[in-house]
From TrEMBL:
Organism whose genome encodes this protein: Microbacterium alkaliflavum
Organism lineage: Bacteria, Bacillati, Actinomycetota, Actinomycetes, Micrococcales
Every HTH cro/C1-type domain range: 28-82
Entries under SMART domains matching the protein: HTH_XRE
Protein's name in the database: Helix-turn-helix domain-containing protein
Keyword DNA-binding: yes
Transmembrane domains' residue ranges: none
Keyword Iron carried by entry: no
Keywords: DNA-binding
CDD domains xrefs: HTH_XRE
Amino acid sequence: MAEIIPLPSKRTPREPEPLWRDALGDLLRRLRHERGERLADTADRAGVSPQYLSEIERGLKEPSSEMIAAVAGALEVTLVELTAAVADDLRVRAAERAVVGVRAAYTLAA
């Protein structure tokens, strides 16, 4: 039987959470740049158009799991590695937002 994970308590967000597609796109672009590849090279291996890959990287498209797998394969990373890296990036962003929120609250209190 599946484990039920409790939802976090309700709170008023200071700024919107980053979208998964934005974090995914940022990571895909970073991976591509680290490999020193042009958009067209990676897109060709993934079987997508350079325009579509560009839109994924900019967070403008919500790619299907098949498209994510194709681009991950073209960048020689597994879906597990890609998903874990996106989750790590989102955790870092959340921690940064929390620090900024604490600083803002401290400044307002002073």
